[in-house]
Design a protein that fits this description.
- About 25% of the residues lie in helices and about 30% in strands.
- With about 300 residues, it is α/β, with parallel strands linked by helices.
- Strands 1, 2, 5, 6, 7, 8 and 19 form a 7-stranded mixed β-sheet that branches. A 5-stranded parallel β-sheet has the order 10-17-11-12-13, with helices on one face.
- The chain starts with a strand and ends with a helix.
- The structure holds NADPH dihydro-nicotinamide-adenine-dinucleotide phosphate.
Length: about 300
Protein backbone atom coordinates (compact mmCIF):
# COMPACT_ATOMS: atom_id res chain seq x y z
CA UNK A 1 0.00 0.00 0.00
CA UNK A 2 1.24 3.49 -0.81
CA UNK A 3 2.29 5.51 2.26
CA UNK A 4 2.17 9.30 2.41
CA UNK A 5 3.00 11.77 5.15
CA UNK A 6 0.37 14.30 4.22
CA UNK A 7 -2.73 13.75 2.12
CA UNK A 8 -4.67 16.83 1.11
CA UNK A 9 -8.25 16.55 -0.10
CA UNK A 10 -9.52 19.53 -2.08
CA UNK A 11 -8.05 21.89 -4.64
CA UNK A 12 -9.24 25.38 -3.76
CA UNK A 13 -7.02 28.07 -2.23
CA UNK A 14 -6.96 26.22 1.13
CA UNK A 15 -5.85 22.89 -0.39
CA UNK A 16 -3.19 24.36 -2.67
CA UNK A 17 -1.77 26.68 -0.01
CA UNK A 18 -1.55 23.71 2.38
CA UNK A 19 0.23 21.83 -0.41
CA UNK A 20 2.75 24.62 -1.02
CA UNK A 21 3.67 24.74 2.68
CA UNK A 22 3.66 20.96 3.16
CA UNK A 23 5.81 20.42 0.07
CA UNK A 24 8.34 23.03 1.17
CA UNK A 25 8.47 21.31 4.58
CA UNK A 26 9.45 18.04 2.82
CA UNK A 27 6.17 16.28 3.61
CA UNK A 28 5.83 15.21 -0.06
CA UNK A 29 2.09 15.91 -0.07
CA UNK A 30 -0.39 14.14 -2.30
CA UNK A 31 -3.38 16.30 -3.23
CA UNK A 32 -6.66 14.94 -4.60
CA UNK A 33 -8.50 17.51 -6.68
CA UNK A 34 -12.03 16.12 -6.40
CA UNK A 35 -15.06 16.80 -8.56
CA UNK A 36 -14.53 20.54 -9.01
CA UNK A 37 -10.80 21.09 -9.63
CA UNK A 38 -9.90 24.57 -8.46
CA UNK A 39 -12.99 24.83 -6.27
CA UNK A 40 -15.53 27.64 -6.10
CA UNK A 41 -13.16 30.30 -7.47
CA UNK A 42 -13.37 28.72 -10.88
CA UNK A 43 -17.07 29.64 -10.95
CA UNK A 44 -16.34 33.35 -10.54
CA UNK A 45 -14.98 35.59 -13.25
CA UNK A 46 -12.59 38.31 -12.12
CA UNK A 47 -10.98 38.33 -8.65
CA UNK A 48 -9.89 41.81 -7.59
CA UNK A 49 -9.61 41.42 -3.82
CA UNK A 50 -6.85 38.81 -3.52
CA UNK A 51 -3.71 40.71 -2.47
CA UNK A 52 -0.87 40.57 -4.97
CA UNK A 53 -2.94 40.91 -8.14
CA UNK A 54 -3.21 44.69 -8.63
CA UNK A 55 -4.87 44.27 -12.03
CA UNK A 56 -7.16 41.43 -10.90
CA UNK A 57 -7.08 37.87 -12.17
CA UNK A 58 -9.67 35.34 -13.26
CA UNK A 59 -10.54 32.58 -10.78
CA UNK A 60 -9.36 29.92 -13.22
CA UNK A 61 -6.01 31.64 -13.81
CA UNK A 62 -5.43 32.07 -10.09
CA UNK A 63 -6.12 28.42 -9.41
CA UNK A 64 -3.78 27.43 -12.25
CA UNK A 65 -1.05 29.60 -10.64
CA UNK A 66 -1.65 27.98 -7.26
CA UNK A 67 -1.56 24.50 -8.81
CA UNK A 68 1.74 25.28 -10.60
CA UNK A 69 3.23 26.70 -7.39
CA UNK A 70 2.23 23.58 -5.42
CA UNK A 71 3.67 21.31 -8.12
CA UNK A 72 6.89 23.31 -8.33
CA UNK A 73 7.77 22.16 -4.81
CA UNK A 74 6.85 18.55 -5.52
CA UNK A 75 3.15 18.21 -4.66
CA UNK A 76 1.70 15.15 -6.34
CA UNK A 77 -1.59 16.56 -7.68
CA UNK A 78 -4.03 13.80 -8.63
CA UNK A 79 -7.45 13.71 -10.19
CA UNK A 80 -9.79 11.57 -8.17
CA UNK A 81 -12.38 11.42 -5.48
CA UNK A 82 -11.60 10.17 -2.02
CA UNK A 83 -14.38 7.76 -1.07
CA UNK A 84 -13.53 6.79 2.49
CA UNK A 85 -11.20 7.55 5.38
CA UNK A 86 -10.71 4.89 8.04
CA UNK A 87 -10.05 7.02 11.11
CA UNK A 88 -9.79 3.99 13.41
CA UNK A 89 -6.38 3.07 11.98
CA UNK A 90 -3.00 4.83 12.36
CA UNK A 91 -1.78 5.72 9.82
CA UNK A 92 -5.24 6.51 8.43
CA UNK A 93 -6.36 4.32 5.54
CA UNK A 94 -7.82 6.30 2.67
CA UNK A 95 -9.71 4.70 -0.19
CA UNK A 96 -9.91 6.53 -3.48
CA UNK A 97 -12.91 5.84 -5.71
CA UNK A 98 -10.74 4.14 -8.35
CA UNK A 99 -10.13 1.45 -5.71
CA UNK A 100 -6.64 2.59 -4.69
CA UNK A 101 -5.86 2.61 -0.94
CA UNK A 102 -3.31 4.90 0.67
CA UNK A 103 -1.89 5.06 4.19
CA UNK A 104 -1.67 8.67 5.39
CA UNK A 105 0.04 9.95 8.52
CA UNK A 106 -1.89 13.20 8.35
CA UNK A 107 -4.88 14.37 6.34
CA UNK A 108 -5.91 17.93 5.51
CA UNK A 109 -9.57 18.29 4.59
CA UNK A 110 -10.06 21.27 2.28
CA UNK A 111 -13.17 20.18 0.41
CA UNK A 112 -14.86 23.58 0.60
CA UNK A 113 -18.51 24.47 0.53
CA UNK A 114 -20.96 24.80 -2.31
CA UNK A 115 -23.26 27.77 -2.67
CA UNK A 116 -26.89 26.81 -3.11
CA UNK A 117 -28.63 27.91 -6.28
CA UNK A 118 -32.32 28.01 -7.11
CA UNK A 119 -31.96 25.44 -9.86
CA UNK A 120 -33.30 27.54 -12.74
CA UNK A 121 -31.80 26.89 -16.20
CA UNK A 122 -31.60 30.68 -16.77
CA UNK A 123 -29.59 31.04 -13.55
CA UNK A 124 -27.05 28.49 -14.80
CA UNK A 125 -26.90 30.20 -18.19
CA UNK A 126 -25.84 33.54 -16.67
CA UNK A 127 -23.55 32.19 -13.94
CA UNK A 128 -20.48 34.43 -13.97
CA UNK A 129 -22.31 36.84 -16.34
CA UNK A 130 -24.38 38.64 -13.74
CA UNK A 131 -25.40 35.69 -11.56
CA UNK A 132 -23.19 35.35 -8.49
CA UNK A 133 -23.28 33.69 -5.08
CA UNK A 134 -20.82 36.13 -3.49
CA UNK A 135 -21.56 39.84 -3.14
CA UNK A 136 -18.20 40.52 -1.46
CA UNK A 137 -16.45 38.99 -4.48
CA UNK A 138 -18.51 40.45 -7.31
CA UNK A 139 -20.49 43.43 -5.95
CA UNK A 140 -17.88 45.91 -7.09
CA UNK A 141 -18.65 45.12 -10.74
CA UNK A 142 -22.19 46.49 -10.27
CA UNK A 143 -21.34 49.91 -8.85
CA UNK A 144 -24.16 52.44 -9.38
CA UNK A 145 -26.31 49.75 -11.02
CA UNK A 146 -29.48 47.95 -9.89
CA UNK A 147 -29.15 44.45 -8.45
CA UNK A 148 -31.22 41.81 -6.67
CA UNK A 149 -30.37 39.49 -3.78
CA UNK A 150 -32.34 36.30 -3.10
CA UNK A 151 -32.77 35.08 0.48
CA UNK A 152 -34.06 36.19 3.84
CA UNK A 153 -31.30 35.03 6.20
CA UNK A 154 -28.34 36.83 7.73
CA UNK A 155 -26.20 36.32 4.63
CA UNK A 156 -28.83 37.84 2.34
CA UNK A 157 -29.30 40.85 4.63
CA UNK A 158 -25.55 41.33 5.01
CA UNK A 159 -25.02 41.09 1.27
CA UNK A 160 -27.95 43.41 0.49
CA UNK A 161 -26.56 46.00 2.91
CA UNK A 162 -23.09 45.68 1.43
CA UNK A 163 -24.43 46.01 -2.11
CA UNK A 164 -26.55 49.01 -1.11
CA UNK A 165 -23.33 50.88 -0.33
CA UNK A 166 -22.16 50.35 -3.93
CA UNK A 167 -25.26 50.04 -6.04
CA UNK A 168 -28.12 52.35 -6.91
CA UNK A 169 -31.02 50.07 -5.99
CA UNK A 170 -31.01 46.67 -4.28
CA UNK A 171 -34.07 44.40 -4.40
CA UNK A 172 -34.20 41.73 -1.72
CA UNK A 173 -36.30 38.82 -2.98
CA UNK A 174 -37.78 36.92 -0.02
CA UNK A 175 -40.12 33.96 -0.46
CA UNK A 176 -41.77 34.28 2.97
CA UNK A 177 -43.70 37.24 4.44
CA UNK A 178 -40.85 37.80 6.91
CA UNK A 179 -37.05 37.73 7.16
CA UNK A 180 -35.33 34.89 8.96
CA UNK A 181 -32.28 37.08 9.75
CA UNK A 182 -31.43 38.38 13.23
CA UNK A 183 -33.34 41.46 14.41
CA UNK A 184 -30.24 43.67 14.18
CA UNK A 185 -29.61 42.62 10.60
CA UNK A 186 -33.27 43.15 9.69
CA UNK A 187 -33.16 46.67 11.09
CA UNK A 188 -30.12 47.47 8.99
CA UNK A 189 -31.99 46.35 5.90
CA UNK A 190 -35.18 48.27 6.73
CA UNK A 191 -33.16 51.41 7.54
CA UNK A 192 -31.25 51.37 4.26
CA UNK A 193 -33.22 53.56 1.84
CA UNK A 194 -32.01 51.94 -1.37
CA UNK A 195 -32.98 48.38 -0.35
CA UNK A 196 -36.48 47.37 -1.35
CA UNK A 197 -37.67 44.15 0.28
CA UNK A 198 -40.00 42.13 -1.94
CA UNK A 199 -41.76 39.74 0.46
CA UNK A 200 -43.58 36.68 -0.84
CA UNK A 201 -41.71 36.81 -4.12
CA UNK A 202 -39.93 34.07 -6.02
CA UNK A 203 -37.71 34.15 -9.07
CA UNK A 204 -39.39 32.69 -12.13
CA UNK A 205 -36.58 33.43 -14.60
CA UNK A 206 -33.33 35.35 -14.86
CA UNK A 207 -33.43 37.45 -18.03
CA UNK A 208 -30.46 38.46 -20.13
CA UNK A 209 -28.69 38.75 -23.45
CA UNK A 210 -25.22 37.98 -24.78
CA UNK A 211 -23.71 40.61 -22.46
CA UNK A 212 -25.25 39.11 -19.32
CA UNK A 213 -28.14 39.67 -16.95
CA UNK A 214 -30.66 42.39 -17.82
CA UNK A 215 -33.50 41.61 -15.44
CA UNK A 216 -35.52 39.07 -13.58
CA UNK A 217 -39.09 37.84 -13.89
CA UNK A 218 -40.63 37.62 -10.45
CA UNK A 219 -43.61 35.56 -9.35
CA UNK A 220 -45.56 36.67 -6.33
CA UNK A 221 -47.02 34.00 -4.07
CA UNK A 222 -50.50 34.93 -5.40
CA UNK A 223 -49.32 33.98 -8.90
CA UNK A 224 -48.88 37.47 -10.36
CA UNK A 225 -45.73 37.85 -12.46
CA UNK A 226 -43.77 40.96 -13.42
CA UNK A 227 -40.25 41.92 -14.49
CA UNK A 228 -37.66 44.22 -12.95
CA UNK A 229 -34.50 45.49 -14.66
CA UNK A 230 -31.25 44.55 -12.91
CA UNK A 231 -27.71 43.77 -14.00
CA UNK A 232 -26.58 41.65 -11.02
CA UNK A 233 -28.45 38.71 -9.47
CA UNK A 234 -26.99 37.47 -6.18
CA UNK A 235 -27.90 34.20 -4.49
CA UNK A 236 -27.73 34.19 -0.70
CA UNK A 237 -29.83 31.15 0.12
CA UNK A 238 -27.16 29.29 2.06
CA UNK A 239 -24.12 27.14 1.51
CA UNK A 240 -23.63 23.42 1.79
CA UNK A 241 -20.31 22.36 3.38
CA UNK A 242 -18.78 19.39 1.57
CA UNK A 243 -18.43 17.17 4.62
CA UNK A 244 -20.17 13.94 3.54
CA UNK A 245 -16.78 12.20 3.54
CA UNK A 246 -16.15 12.92 7.22
CA UNK A 247 -19.71 12.81 8.61
CA UNK A 248 -19.74 10.57 11.67
CA UNK A 249 -15.93 10.68 11.82
CA UNK A 250 -15.21 14.30 12.72
CA UNK A 251 -17.24 16.66 14.92
CA UNK A 252 -19.46 18.87 12.76
CA UNK A 253 -21.49 21.88 13.87
CA UNK A 254 -25.28 22.07 13.54
CA UNK A 255 -24.93 23.29 9.92
CA UNK A 256 -22.53 20.50 8.95
CA UNK A 257 -19.26 22.49 9.02
CA UNK A 258 -16.16 20.81 10.52
CA UNK A 259 -15.47 22.05 14.03
CA UNK A 260 -11.84 23.07 14.59
CA UNK A 261 -10.04 24.03 17.78
CA UNK A 262 -10.06 27.85 17.86
CA UNK A 263 -6.95 29.37 16.29
CA UNK A 264 -5.81 26.03 14.83
CA UNK A 265 -6.84 23.61 12.08
CA UNK A 266 -7.17 20.68 14.51
CA UNK A 267 -10.36 18.64 14.18
CA UNK A 268 -11.86 16.25 16.72
CA UNK A 269 -9.60 13.50 15.29
CA UNK A 270 -5.89 13.87 16.04
CA UNK A 271 -3.89 13.92 12.82
CA UNK A 272 -6.76 15.23 10.68
CA UNK A 273 -6.79 18.96 10.00
CA UNK A 274 -9.31 21.17 8.21
CA UNK A 275 -8.94 24.41 6.27
CA UNK A 276 -11.04 26.74 4.17
CA UNK A 277 -14.79 27.00 3.65
CA UNK A 278 -15.39 23.43 4.88
CA UNK A 279 -14.83 24.77 8.41
CA UNK A 280 -15.69 28.45 7.87
CA UNK A 281 -19.37 29.41 7.74
CA UNK A 282 -18.59 33.09 8.32
CA UNK A 283 -15.88 34.59 6.09
CA UNK A 284 -15.83 32.35 2.99
CA UNK A 285 -13.08 34.34 1.28
CA UNK A 286 -10.22 32.94 -0.81
CA UNK A 287 -7.60 34.84 1.14
CA UNK A 288 -8.95 33.48 4.44
CA UNK A 289 -9.01 29.95 3.03
CA UNK A 290 -5.41 30.33 1.83
CA UNK A 291 -4.34 31.48 5.30
CA UNK A 292 -6.12 28.54 6.89
CA UNK A 293 -4.42 26.19 4.42
CA UNK A 294 -1.06 27.47 5.64
CA UNK A 295 -2.11 26.86 9.25
CA UNK A 296 -3.20 23.31 8.42
CA UNK A 297 0.14 22.46 6.80
CA UNK A 298 2.05 23.86 9.79
CA UNK A 299 -0.18 21.88 12.18
CA UNK A 300 0.36 18.70 10.12
CA UNK A 301 4.12 19.24 10.11
CA UNK A 302 4.17 19.68 13.90
CA UNK A 303 2.00 16.60 14.36
CA UNK A 304 4.42 14.51 12.29
CA UNK A 305 7.41 15.87 14.25
CA UNK A 306 5.71 14.99 17.54
CA UNK A 307 4.80 11.45 16.42
CA UNK A 308 8.12 10.37 14.92
P1 LIG B 1 -29.97 30.59 6.13
O1 LIG B 1 -30.21 29.14 5.94
O2 LIG B 1 -30.06 31.18 7.48
O3 LIG B 1 -31.02 31.41 5.24
C1 LIG B 1 -31.28 31.03 3.92
C2 LIG B 1 -32.35 31.96 3.37
O4 LIG B 1 -32.54 31.64 2.02
C3 LIG B 1 -33.69 31.81 4.08
O5 LIG B 1 -34.32 33.05 4.16
C4 LIG B 1 -34.44 30.89 3.13
O6 LIG B 1 -35.82 31.11 3.12
C5 LIG B 1 -33.90 31.33 1.80
N1 LIG B 1 -34.01 30.26 0.81
C6 LIG B 1 -33.52 29.00 0.88
N2 LIG B 1 -33.82 28.32 -0.24
C7 LIG B 1 -34.51 29.19 -1.03
C8 LIG B 1 -35.10 29.08 -2.30
N3 LIG B 1 -35.02 27.95 -3.01
N4 LIG B 1 -35.74 30.16 -2.82
C9 LIG B 1 -35.82 31.31 -2.12
N5 LIG B 1 -35.28 31.48 -0.89
C10 LIG B 1 -34.63 30.42 -0.36
O7 LIG B 1 -28.56 30.86 5.43
P2 LIG B 1 -27.53 32.06 5.64
O8 LIG B 1 -26.44 31.82 4.64
O9 LIG B 1 -28.22 33.35 5.60
O10 LIG B 1 -26.94 31.83 7.09
C11 LIG B 1 -26.29 30.59 7.45
C12 LIG B 1 -25.87 30.69 8.93
O11 LIG B 1 -24.82 31.64 9.07
C13 LIG B 1 -27.00 31.17 9.83
O12 LIG B 1 -26.90 30.52 11.05
C14 LIG B 1 -26.72 32.65 9.98
O13 LIG B 1 -27.27 33.19 11.17
C15 LIG B 1 -25.20 32.67 9.99
N6 LIG B 1 -24.69 33.97 9.52
C16 LIG B 1 -24.39 34.92 10.44
C17 LIG B 1 -23.92 36.15 10.06
C18 LIG B 1 -23.61 37.15 11.10
O14 LIG B 1 -23.90 36.91 12.26
N7 LIG B 1 -22.99 38.26 10.74
C19 LIG B 1 -23.74 36.52 8.65
C20 LIG B 1 -24.11 35.45 7.75
C21 LIG B 1 -24.57 34.25 8.19
P3 LIG B 1 -36.81 30.61 4.30
O15 LIG B 1 -36.59 31.56 5.44
O16 LIG B 1 -38.12 30.71 3.64
O17 LIG B 1 -36.39 29.20 4.62
Amino acid sequence: MESVKCLIIGSGPAGFTAAIYAARASLSPVLYEGIEPGGQLTTTTEIENFPGYPEGITGTAMMEDLRRQAKRFGTDVRTGIVGNIDTTKRPFVVTVEDGKTIEAQTIIIATGATAKYLGLPSEQKFKGMGVSACATCDGFFYRKQDVAVVGGGDTACEEATYLASLCRQVYLIVRKPFLRASKAMQERVFNTPNIKVLFEHNTAEVLGDEDGVTGVRLRKNDGEEYEIAISGFFLAIGHHPNTELVAGKLALDENGYIVTVAGTSKTSCEGIFAAGDVCDPHYRQAIVAAGKGCIAALDAERYIQAHK
